[in-house]
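prephenate dehydrogenase
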Amino acid sequence: MSDTPFRQVTIVGLGLLGGSIGHAVQAFLPGTTVVGWDADAGVRAQAAELGLAHRIAESAETAAQGSDLVIFCVPVGAMDAAARAIAPGLSKDALVSDVGSSKETVAAALAEALPGHHVIPAHPVAGTERSGPDAGFATLFRNRWCIVTPPADADPALSARLVAFWEALGARVETMDAAHHDKVLAVTSHLPHLIAYTIVGTASDLEQVTQSEVIKYSAGGFRDFTRIAASDPTMWRDVFLSNKDAVLEMLQRFTEDLTELQKAIRKGDGDVLFDHFTRTRAIRRGIIEMGQDDARPDFGRSDHNGAKESAG
Ligand SMILES: NC(=O)c1ccc[n+]([C@@H]2O[C@H](COP(=O)([O-])OP(=O)(O)OC[C@H]3O[C@@H](n4cnc5c(N)ncnc54)[C@H](O)[C@@H]3O)[C@@H](O)[C@H]2O)c1
Ligand SMILES: O=C(O)C(=O)C[C@]1(C(=O)O)C=C[C@@H](O)C=C1
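Structure:
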């Protein structure tokens, strides 16, 4: 393998994820050319202005021309349409990948839309509540996991190049099958978003009763929920529809556990509550010790984008 895993990458979808990949490749893989494409003309113009790619393609049909890697960074419900649109320019040798938050349905959509092409899906577990081209930054993937889900018949050499690509952008890479990915992410990412969307909606309904107190006193826990609940509606609608079975299974478990805590409160059983909270505090501490806390106040700052940033 040369010092750059891919000569030219086409990024389809130039929002938070696509924009961050564009910045990161230019900063950390200077030997790779970045071509950008987005279905939205306004986004394409903004991406050109922000320098998210070396060049913005003139049409979907030509976007993949000459690229040995094409990464779909569109909402998971738009993967099929995006893949069909760029198919005319896509070489049979190119590797097709994506960054979608769910993997089984995306893998199936890409394989069906692009028969005879190499498809190896991936999911960088890194993001923010922001979206759009100006939300991207070069260090988004640094020290974050990227989960690669190669299908059983994937070419191991192509998988290795995709792993090298993500490692060059600063990610730690893990490989697993798509179904397992979807179960794990249902509990670690999808369910927390559903809970945040619910609690913020509930509080807002109650606001009519409490006359603005919800907003006024939202300094702590509630404010953290509002950050998550500000995440992109299109993206999350698609995530829940595409990972339906795993999310419903985890929601069932969650509901049972919530009922246990509800019972303990009603019965005045402090031991159950104390033991539970002690266990969850240890989990949070474990996450921080593993270096998984991301010092969020830095998120989205423009000085994350310069080529002056060094990899590693
Ligand atoms: N936001 C996060 O925290 C996060 C983290 C990891 C993975 N993801 C995944 O990354 C993907 C992109 O998310 P994002 O946050 O960058 O969204 P975003 O809204 O910031 O950007 C998505 C872009 O895709 C474009 N698009 C939509 N349909 C298209 C099509 N058919 N062809 C070309 N372009 C099209 C939109 O115009 C938009 O510019 C999603 O699949 C999401 O699940 C998101
Ligand atoms: O930190 C956040 O704002 C995120 O929601 C990022 C987050 C997550 O749940 O961890 C959201 C969705 C992605 O698919 C990956 C990462």
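Residues 101, 125-129, 189, 231 surround prephenic acid (ligand 2) (CB under 6 Å).
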